[in-house]
């Protein structure tokens, strides 16, 4: 529903340079992975798109519109952070319903809410946990609920920051397949950050390799794989 373009984006935090003239173009409906080691600038790239950090130079376009001066909540993107947070006093169901009840997303009937929550919880393998509270969940289950809070709401693009980092290897592999399917089904543009190259190769329609705030390679998994 929305293409994403970063053009010559430069960003520093004080004296620390996070991004240097970073340019990326993500097609409408593409599942695009940013792969790179810790400190490469992956999270900063997502925050630049979401409008959560001001950029020093360059531009960000979403769906062809320049986002300069556009507030985060008007950008039509949904971002999930590695440090996920759930409402401790709400059940899984109510944690997933709250993004659908906030005024900015339009209104959903109770039946529509339940239907979307059912779809998302089934995809994420947490349908049986809907009446539990966060304290009654494992870390991996909590992470899936947090991801559900992003995916439950229609958005022009999903910005996902290491969404599988707290899962064990087996669950991570299963979730990879499911996420890919979810991306294909919903055809929502997804910008997905990871430091795990297997995850990147498994998920990405295309992958950008980020190092020290710059894109050093962009291509399909096959193209990235074939280079030394
Ligand atoms: P990644 O997500 O790839 O680990 P980040 O975008 O988080 O990379 O960070 C890129 C660089 O910017 C790193 O050197 C990091 O230490 C620095 N950085 C990130 N956020 C802040 C911040 N809020 N204040 C100061 N430096 C930061
Ligand atoms: P992990 O090692 O993945 O963190 P846990 O040992 O925390 O997993 O939990 C294992 C299983 O027990 C999970 O299915 C989780 O939902 C369930 N569980 C954990 N804590 C509680 C609790 N307080 N009440 C009910 N079920 C729980």
Automatic annotation (TrEMBL):
It comes from the Bacteria. One of its GO terms (cellular component) is ATP-binding cassette (ABC) transporter complex, substrate-binding subunit-containing. Keywords: ATP-binding, Nucleotide-binding, Transport. The keyword Hydrolase does not apply. Residues 4-228 form the ABC transporter domain. One of its GO terms (molecular function) is ATP hydrolysis activity. This is Sugar ABC transporter ATP-binding protein. It comes from Actinocatenispora thailandica. The lineage of its organism: Bacteria, Bacillati, Actinomycetota, Actinomycetes, Micromonosporales.
